[in-house]
Design goal:
globular; Dihydrodipicolinate Reductase, domain 2; alpha+beta; 4-stranded mixed β-sheet
């Protein structure tokens, strides 16, 4: 429904149990749009759905999403989007900014963010073929109404202890958040920028009966798996970028350490819908993802 409001679309079949959905978009006007999830459903997933639409609006889009989950299972954390996805998309000409008003977690959600996206007439191709050298490793460790247990600090300390074993050190920002008194929770994102402009990240969320140390260890292990392989995008960013490189006119290319089911599916769908062609080839232990043509 949020996508429909953004482009004044005519829709039918948008009901539980429906086997068909008809979506007929009109002009993407932009402006202020409100969306309310009402559960701990993922705010980042909603943003990833509508961001390609927002980028081509006639005027700046200010989308406020409320009563949802910012950091929940089976979804990137909101800070991963803010610190990894959006900076990478700026290379392609998309100027988008996220403001986090309230963090939200399972089961109550109640998170709230604003996404601001400036109009983009066309997308620049993305060329990331060399990992280069790591310039900086940073992170954000956040907990909401768990400062008394030092959850954010413990997540960060455990992550840095593991990174040190691998010869790395991260500058991790500690956020003892008090924005959402209705739902406690935590998350940690780690990200690195290289000399070639590549940004790679990994994240983890706190859950019931999951220790802060387990969160820190999980994020650090996933992050180390990425940077040790020396790709130019991490495994999750690889599939998130597909719609954007498909819409860019010229050839784009990047390297990932593995081909996930999401990457496979996104490429298949982009080729069907947008009449483009992708090539995925393995070389030197990495997979080279290239949008090779606009048919």
């Amino acid at each position: 429904m949020t996508a429909a409001r953004l482009c004044d679309a005519e829709i039918s079949g948008a009901s539980v149990g429906s086997r068909e959905l008809w979506f007929k978009p009109k002009k993407i006007k932009g402006g202020k749009v409100e969306a309310e999830i009402g559960t701990a459903g993922s705010i980042p997933m909603l943003i990833m759905t509508v961001l390609p639409i927002c980028a081509f609006a006639e005027e700046t889009v200010n989308l406020r999403v409320s009563k949802g989950g910012t950091d929940v299972s089976h979804s990137p954390t909101i800070n991963y989007l803010r610190l990894v996805l959006l900076p990478t998309l700026r290379r392609m000409g998309i100027k988008a900014h996220l403001t986090i008003h309230k963090y939200g977690y399972y089961p109550k959600g109640m998170g709230e963010v604003t996404l601001s996206v400036e109009p983009c007439s066309s997308l620049e191709p993305l060329s990331l073929e060399n990992f280069g050298r790591i310039k900086d490793i940073r992170g954000v460790s956040v907990c909401t109404f768990l400062a008394d247990r030092k959850v954010a600090e413990r997540q960060a300390t455990t992550a840095n202890d593991l990174l040190k074993e691998k010869g790395h050190m991260a500058n991790i920002q500690i956020i003892n958040d008090r924005s959402n008194p209705l739902q406690k929770g935590s998350s940690l994102v780690l990200y690195a920028e290289t000399g070639t402009g590549a940004i790679l990240g990994a994240d983890a969320i706190g859950e019931l009966r999951k220790t802060s140390e387990a969160v820190g260890r999980e994020a650090a292990e996933k992050f180390c798996a990425e940077i040790s392989a020396m790709p130019t995008v991490d495994v999750h960013l690889a599939d998130m970028l597909v719609p954007y490189v498909a819409l860019a006119k010229a050839k784009s290319v990047y390297l990932t350490r593995t081909v996930s089911d999401h990457l496979d599916t996104n490429i298949w769908l982009a080729e069907k819908l947008l009449n483009v062609k992708f090539s995925v080839k393995k070389a030197n232990g990495l997979y080279r993802v290239e949008k090779v043509s606009q048919e």
